[in-house]
């Protein structure tokens, strides 16, 4: 029989909400989404150019526009990444979670294996975490933050290379090339990091939709409103 006290308790559980992502983090997330989408599409076209167009060459600037969009999106992505890293120093604890993996904590390791079991459909109920769960935290660091550093550094090096040997920022290109082994190898690292981020993006979207449906806690809407709602 439904009692008034049980109804109050159930109402409180349904309305439970926690502020997880602050405004700068949410703005960066969606700005990053569109920048990365533009980088993926234009980067693929730069690596595998489109067929030649008919008519006079002077009537077309397709590839130039593709490169322009790629460079502009790269600027947004790079400066946005730097701003996001700086905000992690002053934001709440969830703003810092993507930049490190606390594997030395026993509680984190237990949560990691519990989430693996949940993702493998071996748990009936999803573990609850205010911010990123341990698996998501590891993926964000290993498959987004680190590849982002590779994409940004190699992208800047290749961009400066095109500006000429006498450009003041040529020192960046020389430094990156000394690590990668040259221009061609830098292109390879740039492409590999991009494809790693493509795979991450697919898994990220899948996990967000899956958790929104199965875990009874908000995921997608949380990155819009900032509030995580617990539904039971």
Secondary-structure blueprint:
Elements: H1 4-14, E1 17-19, H2 23-47, H3 62-87, H4 106-119, H5 134-163, H6 170-180, H7 183-214, H8 222-225, E2 227-229
Antiparallel strand pairs: 1-2
Helix pairs in contact: 2-3, 3-5, 5-6, 5-7
How would you describe this protein?
With 232 residues, this protein is mostly helical. The chain has one domain (18-48, 62-125, 134-230): Transmembrane di-heme cytochromes, Chain C (Fumarate Reductase Cytochrome B subunit, Up-down Bundle), CATH 1.20.950.20. Helices cover 66% and strands 3% of the residues. Strands 1-2 form a two-stranded antiparallel ribbon. Helix 2 packs antiparallel against helix 3 (62-87) and helix 5 crosses helix 6 (170-180). The protein starts with a helix and ends with a strand. The chain crosses the membrane at residues 27-48, 68-90, 138-160, 188-209.
Number of helices: 8
The chain-level structural class is mainly alpha
Task: Tell me roughly what share of residues is in helical segments.
Answer: 55-70%
**Uncertain segments:** 1-13
CATH class: Mainly Alpha
Q: On the 0-100 scale, what is the average pLDDT?
A: 88
Give helix and strand order, one letter per element, not per position.
HEHHHHHHHE
Estimate what percentage of residues fall within beta strands. under 5%
Question: How many β-strand runs?
Answer: 2
What does the main sheet amount to? 2 strands, antiparallel
CATH architecture: Up-down Bundle
Strand order of the largest sheet: 1-2
* Overall tally of domains: 1
- Overall, the morphology is elongated
CATH superfamily: Transmembrane di-heme cytochromes, Chain C
The CATH topology assignment is Fumarate Reductase Cytochrome B subunit
What is the first-to-last residue Cα distance? 19 Å
| Overall radius of gyration | 22 Å
